[in-house]
User: Which sequence fits this backbone?
């Protein structure tokens, strides 16, 4: 038995071509498992997000990406570098049709729950790198908007503020309606009291 050989069944006991094939299979299994795990994680992110802001980060350094990620985390926004192919697979049967055209070049996605707040957070966090990073668009629910739409979205109040304004707007007409009903009742009560007082004065006389 030569020095490069081992016992039967051991990899070193295989012919060279067989060992190479086995090594390719073994090395190919790990990336496949990693891809499956990544796709599962992306699907989980998609399920928990209402807003996806897509950007191309070509040219950014690792340190700069980390700074953007930290800034967005403070706003409850997750910033993740994605492989376009894996992202498209994860988005199948969901937002894939709207998201796929935005995945161009090296892509990063900000996952958020509030449309306007997420857009504003991304624009603020990426402003120092505006010459490098490029926002390609966003997906709101199942609808895509372009980069200009993201800029306009960032100027809007947050969902919470809009809902509170809506609730206030609904309460105002109700309050006005109640005051309209209340005014005649107050007037009627005042008139009845006057009649009662006059009768009391007549009776005393």
Assistant:
């Amino acid at each position: 038995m030569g020095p490069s050989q081992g016992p039967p069944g051991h990899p070193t006991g295989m012919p060279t071509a067989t060992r190479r094939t086995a090594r390719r299979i073994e090395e190919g299994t790990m990336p496949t498992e990693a891809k499956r795990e990544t796709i599962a994680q992306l699907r989980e992110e998609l399920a928990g997000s209402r807003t996806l802001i897509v950007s191309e980060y070509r040219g950014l350094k690792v340190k700069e990406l980390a700074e953007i990620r930290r800034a967005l985390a403070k706003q409850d926004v997750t910033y993740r570098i994605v492989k376009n192919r894996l992202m498209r697979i994860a988005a199948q049967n969901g937002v894939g049709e709207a998201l796929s055209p935005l995945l161009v070049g090296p892509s990063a996605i900000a996952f958020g729950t509030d449309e306007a707040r997420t857009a504003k957070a991304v624009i603020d966090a990426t402003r120092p790198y505006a010459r490098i990073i490029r926002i390609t668009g966003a997906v709101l629910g199942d609808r895509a908007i372009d980069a200009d739409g993201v800029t306009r979205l960032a100027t809007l109040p947050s969902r919470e503020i809009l809902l509170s304004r809506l609730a206030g707007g609904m309460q105002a007409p109700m309050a006005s309606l109640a005051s309209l009903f209340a005014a005649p009742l107050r007037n009627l009560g005042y008139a009845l009291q006057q009649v009662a007082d006059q009768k009391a004065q007549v009776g005393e006389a």
The mean pLDDT is 78. The longest strand covers residues 134-140. The helical segments are 16-47, 62-73, 84-90, 96-99, 115-126, 147-154, 159-204.
